[in-house]
Structure formats: structure tokens, C-alpha cells
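Session log. Operator J.P. requested a structure for one protein chain; no other inputs attached. Running the standard single-chain path with C-alpha cell output.
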Amino acid sequence: MKAVDPKEVAQKLNTVRLSNVNITRQEWEKLKLPYNQSFLTECVRSGIVIRVERNVYKFRATPIYYKEVISIIDSIKSKYYPATKAVVISNEERAINYLKSLGYKIFKEV
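Structure written below.
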């Protein structure tokens, strides 16, 4: 996925917000926002978007700031794309593990 510019996303959301109309899920998908439905869900949780009916949403009256968009993107990334810790094994450890798999006993110097 390409990098997301929070200022552009906030600008898109504010232009739709200023039109002061209800927006459906299908119209939301046409906005081409990052993380599509997950982004909508997080916007509802954070209070940027208010659910009017089943698939109809309305924006709040106050402007949407890019820092809010950053926090939404971060919460989506932490929820759906958790950071994995890479395990780095040195060549020496790799050689020791290989020899242990062959049945050799490895002793460390004191």
C-alpha cells in the first residue's frame, strides 16, 4: 500500500463535510480513502462521522483536522496490521544451531 498523506485525506473529508449531505457506504467507497471500511468504522468510533441509519452517515459540524486522521490511521495500523518483531540470528548462532541439529554438543567458554 502506498503512503497515505493525512492532510489530503482531511481535505477530502472536509469537502464532503461542507456539502452537508448524508453519505452512504457506496459513496464512501467512491472517495477512495485509505483502509476503506476500516477507516469508516474508526471515524464513527472517534466521532468524526455519525451514523444516521443503517448504511447512511453524516459528518459532524466541526472541521476534521489532519492530526485526527493520523490518530485514526495509527489505530487501524495497530489493530489490523500489528508490528512483528524480526528475529535476527547471527551467522555464529546459525552455525551452532546447525551443529546441534546434527547431534554435536556445543560448550561455551567461561
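Operator note: DSSP finds five helices and three strands in the chain.
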